[in-house]
Amino acid sequence: MCKVIEDMRKEAIEYDRVEIAKDMIKDGMLSLEQIAHYSRLALEKVKELAESKPVEA
To answer: What's the rounded mean pLDDT across residues 46-54?
Structure first.
């Protein structure tokens, strides 16, 4: 049971990091490298998020 809870906790942390990175990308104030550093996501993941962000009108 503890393994399941730990996995859920890790997934929640990862989700939060991704959402924060998306907001940072949308804001456009930081480089992708800085976003990766501050969100603690891999640079490749941040680049993937940046490429998949919807185009705003």
So the answer is: 89
- Whether 51 has a pLDDT exceeding 50, the answer reads yes
Q: Give the number of domains in the chain.
A: 1
Are residues 22 and 39 in contact, defined by beta-carbon separation less than 8 angstroms?
no
Q: Which domain holds residue 8?
A: 2-51
Q: Could you tell me if residue 57 is inside a domain?
A: no
Burial class (CB in 10 A: 0-12, 13-18, 19+), 27: exposed
Q: How far apart are alpha carbons 8 and 33 in whole angstroms?
A: 27
Tens digits of residue pLDDT in 16-28: 999 999 999 999 9
Q: Which pTM was predicted?
A: 0.81
Distance CA 18, CA 34 (A): 14
